[in-house]
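Here is one chain, start to finish.
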Amino acid sequence: MGDTPSFIVGNFRPTLRMKRLFLYALLLCFPLMANAQKKAINEAGNYVKSAKNLDKAEKLMTDLLRDSTNQRNEKIWTTLIDAVKLQYVQGNEKLYLKQKYDTASLFTIARKLFTFCEEFDSIEALPNKKGEVKIKHRTKNAEYLNGLRPNLFNGGAYFVRKLDFQRSWDFYDAYLDCENQPLFTGYKYAESDTLRPTAAYWALYSGYRLNDAGKVLKYQLLAEKDSGKLDNVLQYVAETHLLRADTMAYVATLRRGFDNNPRHLFFFPRLVDYFNSCGMADSSMVYIDRALDNDSTNALFLFAKSAALLNTGDYDKCIQVTDRLLAINDSMPEAYCNMGLAYYNQALGLEKTMTRNNRKKRRAVNELYEKSRPYMEKFRQLAPDQKVKWVPALYTIYLNLNMGKEFDEIDKMREKMQH
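Its structure:
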């Protein structure tokens, strides 16, 4: 071990002379670094003065800001912001003069201005070595950006139309976040800006199209203040909760949506389906009756009640409700199925109580099968692909009514289905 070279990392012990040499070399580097920084700032400043190569000026300054030691350099920040401002002015002039220019680029430059000015403001708000806070540029930058702020909203709308939902969300988020930025202290956007709920809605919609739950829910409460779009907001939020497998939040949102608009085609069917899937027939019926109280001739609501009564075995009421439904809409296949099955199930139930030679009950059973037959045949006609529903019923009906030709046909179908 005594022969181990002293330069191996584990045993290295720098001498005092080596430390002094390292410090000397480091001190020599500082002027070089300072000169490089000064040169970059001067070069960018010249680009800004000439209003040319502004993208290069921006890059020079953002490269310097990557070094944390430059973060508090006021000149770097002001040069950067001036370079981006001029890019915006030039782009805006080209669009005004109807010259060839990418509209998306103008919106992107506007958003960069907000980002850089907000970052610079947060740096200025930090205490210096003496513990003092000197904010020199807030008022001027905030005033300039306040006039530019509508372009964040318009940029969001532009990217929604382009179906670029990541960028539309970014723009609406930047627009709404202004009220949280110290840079805009005193502007009171939360009180004065009537477009905030609309921006929140489109931010939520963009998040929904991105399947990003965090983006959907971030501005939900504000989006709900856009009363004209509340149905859509609650629908998107409900679907988001469903994707997150948050069943409690999903059902709670469906309830809110139904309470807000009982006739909306999204909330009612899903509430009823949920309660039925959980075996909560009573809860399902409560919402069905509430829906019918709101609109007694709505075919969807009547069908839901017809199906619920059929499932609970209340066949007489099912027949009454389905009869009302068919009077309103005589082209709904499932309505014929419900009516046919109500009579069919009554026949099966009565048949179970029948003794072998009870002719009176046999007539009653056959009368019920006879009542069921036209509805099941109509269902077959309207929904030929749903054989699993009408083949077994018609097989039993034709068998009991001694309809040989019809029975033979349906018997062959039944055999094919079994194989």
